[in-house]
Amino acid sequence: MENKVKVCVENLNVHYGEKQALFDVCMDINQNEITALIGPSGCGKSTFLRCLNRMNDVIDICKVEGSIKIDGQNIYDKDIQVEKLRERVGMVFQKPNPFPKSIFENVAYGPRIHGLAKDKTELEEIVHTSLKKAAIFDEVKDRLDETGTSLSGGQQQRLCIARAISVNPDVILMDEPCSALDPIATAKIEALMEDLKKEYTIIIVTHSMQQAARVSKKTGFFHLGNLIEVNDTETIFSTPANDKTLDYVTGRFG
Amino acid sequence: MENKVKVCVENLNVHYGEKQALFDVCMDINQNEITALIGPSGCGKSTFLRCLNRMNDVIDICKVEGSIKIDGQNIYDKDIQVEKLRERVGMVFQKPNPFPKSIFENVAYGPRIHGLAKDKTELEEIVHTSLKKAAIFDEVKDRLDETGTSLSGGQQQRLCIARAISVNPDVILMDEPCSALDPIATAKIEALMEDLKKEYTIIIVTHSMQQAARVSKKTGFFHLGNLIEVNDTETIFSTPANDKTLDYVTGRFG
Amino acid sequence: MNSNSLKISNENLKRRLNAERRFKFYGVIAISLALIFVLILFTNIISKGYSAFYRTLIEIKIEFNDKVQPEMFKQMSDTEINKLDLYSFSKKNIYSNFPDIEKKSDKKKIIKLFSIEFEEEIKTYINKNKNNLGNTINLYISASDDIDQIHKGNYSRDIPEERRRVSNFQLSIYDELVGQNKVKFEFNLPFFSRGDSREAELAGLGGSLIGSFFTMIIVLLLSFPFGLFGAIYLEEFSKRNRFTDFIEININNLAAVPSIVFGLLGLGILLNTFELPRSTALVGGITLSLMTLPTIIIATRASLRSVPPSIREGALAVGASKVQTVMHHVVPLALPGSITGTIIGIARALGETAPLLLIGMVAFIVDVPSSPLDPSTSLPVQAYLWNDSAERAYEEKTSAAIIILLSFLILFNLIAVFIRRKFETKW
Amino acid sequence: MGLITFFLLVLFAITSFYLGYFRSNRVRVIEKQRPFSLDKYYGYYLAIWSVVPAVIILFAILIFDGFIVKNYVLSEFYSQGIDQSEISLLFTQIENTRNGIKLFNSEDEIIVNAVNKLNYIEGIFDITSIITVFSVSSLFLLYGYRKINLNFDARLIVEKFILIGFFLCSLIAILVTVGIIFSLLYETVRFFSQVPILDFLFGTNWSPQRAFVRDAADAADIENAFGAVPLFSGTFLIAFIAMCVSIPVGLLTAIYMSEYAKSSVRNTAKPIIEILAGIPTVVYGFFAVITIAPFIRSLGGSIGLDVSSESALAAGLVMGIMIIPFVSSLSDDVISSVPQSLREGSYAMGATKSETIKKVIIPAALPGIIGSFLLAVSRAIGETMIVVMAAGLVANLTANPLEASTTITTQIVVILIGDQEFDSPKTMSAFALGLTLFVMTLILNFIALRVVKKYTEKYE
Amino acid sequence: MSDHLVESYDKQLELINSNLVKMGGLVEQQVKDSLKALDDKDTEFAEEILKKDDKIDNLEKEIYALAYKIIAMRQPMANDLRTVVSALSIANDLERMGDHATNVAKRVANVKVSMPSQSISKIVQMGDDVQNMIKNVLDAFIKMSEKKAITVWDSDIDIDETYLSIYRELLQMMADNPETINGCAHLLTIAKNIERIGDYAQNIAEDIHFIVTGETLERKSDNAGQWEDLDIKT
Amino acid sequence: MSDHLVESYDKQLELINSNLVKMGGLVEQQVKDSLKALDDKDTEFAEEILKKDDKIDNLEKEIYALAYKIIAMRQPMANDLRTVVSALSIANDLERMGDHATNVAKRVANVKVSMPSQSISKIVQMGDDVQNMIKNVLDAFIKMSEKKAITVWDSDIDIDETYLSIYRELLQMMADNPETINGCAHLLTIAKNIERIGDYAQNIAEDIHFIVTGETLERKSDNAGQWEDLDIKT
Ligand SMILES: Nc1ncnc2c1ncn2[C@@H]1O[C@H](COP(=O)(O)OP(=O)(O)OP(=O)(O)O)[C@@H](O)[C@H]1O
Ligand SMILES: Nc1ncnc2c1ncn2[C@@H]1O[C@H](COP(=O)(O)OP(=O)(O)OP(=O)(O)O)[C@@H](O)[C@H]1O
Ligand SMILES: [Mg+2]
Ligand SMILES: [Mg+2]
Ligand SMILES: O=P([O-])([O-])[O-]
């Protein structure tokens, strides 16, 4: 039941000014799977992730070389429109970052700017569906016009997930989405991810090896900007091919 | 080989303004042992720890009731001088916080303000001994006049430990001393603690149950400001008497 | 799944991208406007003022006669020479440089070509060269402000004569002198040393420079220590309660109170109640100190606050007392920030005019003050005063005073930036 | 005497320091135990005992000695029954004579005598005061010295003393406010005792010199002369013009700087724009008079408008320029303090930059931005030099920006510049205007600071 | 089994437990069946039984994999950790029980029809007791009942006694009828197998006790051997 | 053992390994001694051997406690996790090997002096082979050599064959000389014990293979039994 390749990264090199953050990274990411990225702090996981929806464009000094193809289309081509790209590649951040607006507006924001809804009812439907998919609808349905920041951390993060899926993306990127959450909220998000992967391709950066082991099908290990190894999660955590990976997963990193 | 009781806390109640942070905490802490404090975030571990050297005095709204006796002397007595107390009860913090001065000056500061050294040579000796005890002397002996902040995180933390023991305390309090460190540095600090307990009584707050299990002889579990259970570490992590403790150590906290 | 390509842009997206471009364009316009303002302001002032830094001199020949002989100066001291009355001698000698001019009224006009202090200048020349004076000497003396302006090209000659301050006759003489190569420019050193004057060519910045200097010293001496210590108390020691909240709000408000209100304070309290001497740098300094104090307190508190609590905790935990902690660790780290704030505050005080007007530092003061208790003006007030004068030459002087003022401010700010860069700590 | 006393005091302090230092050291050696504090604290302790009382006494002497000396010197004149005002003139004369300033050629013998007397009494005063000061100090020193023993913690006392000093410093800010309010209120109350407050606030005619000229002969005239409405209207007109310039330019600049500009652009443009804030207002005033006003005038002339040489427009425009960096840097701070995560959240949804700014950042930062506007308004209202130099001095009630109009601040300056007669309602009216200004800006600042503070705390 | 586990921790622990229970059930069945085959001397049925052993083996592997995953993913502590680690040894024991039961079935064919049914029925009797032990130990496991576990633990002594008497009887028979030597040797082994199954049930009871209380019951070190010795000496 | 562990992770893992090696050494000695006792029919020596079993049992408990601690404290992953979990089963196997060896020693007294030394020496021979296996498997463990482990694994087949021949011989002897029945029954059990020791060595080899490679060797499900059956039929 090997899935189709959704994202294909080839020879990705990323520089921040003088400093090279990624070296010749090549990686295939399968559709409807959860792929985890692990590695020590500063190894380039976030950088890699942010290349996938060109969030790195925001940083002046960041230079990206190589190709990243989503469904065969290089997203770094000249005539690619980032707005469109980001519509298709959603992102969820480390710290929950709902807009300081109402819960409804938070989720309606994306469909609005992209003109996805013809009218009010359609918009409402999109919002409701997204909230349901993000498994938070029941908790907030009675207070859609309270501000998003009034929710608890875990709820906020699920709201952000609802926001991300409101524009119906193919791929969802998550950068340590649970690191600011307590174990219970984390468990909820993990369960949610499992649900979401049926519809979306999910790529998650995590610091917790246990989390990677729990949620992902494939895992990639980064070290000093190199993608050392990418393989089935089971293999990575039981019998990794590379010694560095082994040292990392067994906590012997030096 | 039960050790003598060094610190005896009785009916400790702490309020931050309206909010009560600790409820009737009673706890005996043995000499020359490592005692670990665990518990979910915000349960009052740090508050408890900071009562032991009256660091909470710094916070205006913090009110402490009850008695804490160190060697039989209540440290909250009127005629106790906090400076003297803190000379005897050292503290190491979560984030390494060396002064932005030279390594030498970092360690020499305590002895200087307490007038522990008669002259330069004596001061130097104190500094060297402290650095040696903190197992960092060899790494820094050639650059004692470099600034303390130029060291790596782990080294900085050991420098802070050296600073704490430079005034020859009886008790050392550590508030999550390794949470900002990588595993290697953590291992070093843990080894160091094992060494230090021969001379000092150590109380450590930690978020990592594994760390508590590794280093401590006794462990206290806090929950919502109550000391739920305190017992041998082995017991706490294998067969705790209290269901809350069990839920916490097995990660089932709700 | 989204089948549409990442490239195909629909109407909606095109519209959005256009909006984006427009918005960005507005930003560029705004910034350009601001920058253009700066540019215009500086070029305007520099172009108006740079010529004040040199002055016009006209060469004349002086012949000594029986009554006034070179030898007699050799024995005399400087003061004795200065006390001599050489006015008519000088005047005659100037006339003799223009032998063709006969009419008395024309002669008067000739004299008007020169600075009113021509006698002094001749004396100064004699003083300087008293040991090797020949029977005739050629020296340059200052032109009058009008000729100065004309020679600098600041003053149009095309204006009809009746509205011009220089007559056609004078112009022709001037042209003749230029033709003889007898008119030259020189760096205008006296501009920096002289006090104010009703005669434009004689008016200098010296008095106001010294006045400003005294004022700033007082501001520094008063506001820095009080600001620093007050800030330390508020930030590090005061318990949070109504009273300290009140002080806090009070200080923040004080920093935004219009400067002229401080002038009223100076007038009402310092002059009227304490009866301190009017128009002096002392009162000006105190007034400006009070104005600067909140700035310094705020800057110092900000930099105290930016010292991480972990440093404090580190010191407290080895048994340092609170005072020791603050004085040994926190203050040294906050000092660069505090000093930067102080410099910037002082720079602001240096440029401040309004409060000084009210405490009488706006008087016409010829003497260069020798102490903070002497009546004096300050640089910006001097500029204001000159701006009020009708003569054309004062426009140039005003601009020049402003150039000097701005140079000082830029210098101060550069120093502040330097200190900030040098001691900047990222926690 | 000042300098000598000062040096003696310093010497005394240093000696006391070492006295304390060595005393503590000896105690340490003899008792073979360390005292509570470090040796140097005992030094400081004694130094404080030796200096602080001395300084207090000196201050007391300084305050009272003039009075005592004067009374002593003038005592015989009093007995001669000379008029009070003449006596003070006399004293000035005596002092002048002593300082070598001869106003009168003939030196009165009485005066010479008095001068001698003055010199004599001052000499005695100096010596006795020095002796008193140092003997009192020595007593305190002795007291302090005897307190030094093993169980005495000098550090506590020294630190308490330092704290008191710091506390006094922090009180100065309050004193300043009290001073402001006192000085303004005092004259204002007197003013309103002559001019009804309502006439001041709602009168439309402002011509204080008229009241002055007629020497307050006609009470009705006085009332009519102090209607401040034209000043208020002028102030607000100019402030309005200034805000019309500075808000759009400043806000857009801030947005561009924080969101669009490359760091290289930002690093050069930002300091340049901030120069605008550092330029003294007198410079702006000059610029308005010399460059902007003639420009507007000729521009107006070319389209057939009659623009007066001093116009609200010129002043307002230049003031607007001056305030640009205020608006822009405050707004910039506020916009930058919107967490990056919000921005990224919006970009990640596929929003363009301008959409992010308009729909996420500005709404999030709005309170702060409004706060910065209010501060800018307060600044514009309180601005003095530009309006003094460029706006005109005539109070005319008009909304036409091309005409000259005057402001509160201008009138304060106009009234108080040069010598004033302190009892005239004209002079006092300036203080009333000052108080009005103070209250207006205070309210604005208070609201603005609150708003900004609340806003910044939100994202901390 | 799904390629990776997404259910929550508790579900994983439950799965490990239910697998153990399932395995225990299979083992119980296996023992029962082989005893029936022995009783009926039904060779065909015995052959069938042999095939079922694979199921047990696979379940053991599954439990192992699961325990691995839990340790790797969940950092178990306290009773969870005991559950997981004990699951490993319980699974191991169950697998051995299954093997022993299968062994019994294997030997059914070799047990001559001429064998005296008396000792066989005695063996079957012992088998029933053992089966009871298994049932009880599974019950104790499901209920996590420390008391039940102790009861099971105690009942092993009876089994051992029965075994000894069977052993003596069989030796006697061999001596009496040398032609039964081959069959009796097999019966000896069968009896030993069943006795071992009892021992393993006892082990499991120990593990349950450990899971529940965190304390170890003194593990009896193959006392059966000693009893045999005693017997031999008489 | 100290009340709690402070050595670093690696030291703990080392300790677990060294304890296993120590345990292996003890088991090897136990096997050797009991074979010697059997060969010499030295009952006194055999008694001594019995006492040593406790040591092995204690080591097993220590290893268990250690494995617990490591899992609780260190969140082992990958090969570390395999090491720890395999340590549990290796320790279990070693303990069983020790038990079986002790069993051999126990029976020495019952082996009549009159027993034919031929079968005894054959058993001892098999014992030597098993001892060799143990030695090799320990070596494989120390060196973490997957190849050596496979060699050990393979060599179990020889042991099983030897066991079968001994089994046949002993049955024959019982049939021939009914008075040896009692002794031969014991020898049968002894042989079985030794064969089981070999099986356990094979298990350990499997574990080593798993630790090193992460892959399981197909666990042979008590083939010995089948072989016995084959024999009986002939
Ligand atoms: N905006 C930036 N400017 C300059 N360097 C950067 C920037 N962002 C990241 N880097 C550098 O690039 C490297 C990779 O950073 P990245 O954030 O991708 O690491 P990471 O693996 O996500 O680390 P973490 O686990 O701490 O989030 C680091 O060395 C970092 O210093
Ligand atoms: N300075 C303070 N002012 C007010 N409340 C405080 C303060 N410090 C702590 N608290 C409150 O006291 C309670 C206990 O806090 P404490 O810091 O002791 O928890 P903790 O166990 O150390 O948590 P953590 O693991 O997050 O460090 C918390 O509810 C916290 O909100
Ligand atoms: Mg990252
Ligand atoms: Mg804490
Ligand atoms: O199960 P065992 O064969 O070792 O008794």
CATH top level class name of the largest domain in chain D: Mainly Alpha
What is the third-level CATH name, the topology of the largest domain in chain C?
MetI-like fold
* Gyration radius over CA of chain C: 31 Å
Tally of contiguous helical segments of chain D:
17
Associated small molecules: adenosine-5'-triphosphate, magnesium ion, phosphate ion
Largest sheet of chain D: none
Q: Describe the strand arrangement of the main beta sheet of chain C, using strand numbers.
A: 2-1-3
Estimate percent helicity of chain C.
55-70%
Number of domains of chain C: 2
The computed structural class of chain D is mainly alpha
CATH overall fold name of the largest domain in chain D: MetI-like fold
What is the CATH superfamily label of the largest domain in chain D? MetI-like
Largest sheet of chain C: 3 strands, antiparallel
How many β strands of chain D by DSSP?
0
Describe the structure.
The complex is a heterohexamer, with two copies of chain A (254 residues), one copy of chain C (427 residues), one copy of chain D (460 residues) and two copies of chain E (234 residues). Chain A has 254 residues and is α/β, with parallel strands linked by helices. Chain A has helices spanning 45-52, 82-88, 103-114, 120-133, 137-140, 153-165, 183-196, 209-215, 233-238, 243-249; strands at residues 5-16, 19-30, 34-38, 62-70, 73-74, 89-92, 171-175, 201-205, 218-223, 226-232. In chain A, the strands form two sheets. Chain A has a six-stranded mixed beta sheet with strand order 6-7-8-3-9-10, sandwiched between helices. In chain A, strands 2-1-4-5 form a four-stranded antiparallel beta sheet, with helices on one face. Chain A starts with a strand and ends in a 5-residue tail after the last helix. The relative contact order of chain A is 0.18. Chain E is an all-alpha fold. The N and C termini of chain E lie far apart (55 Å). The site of one adenosine-5'-triphosphate has 13 residues of chain B, from strand 2 and helix 1.
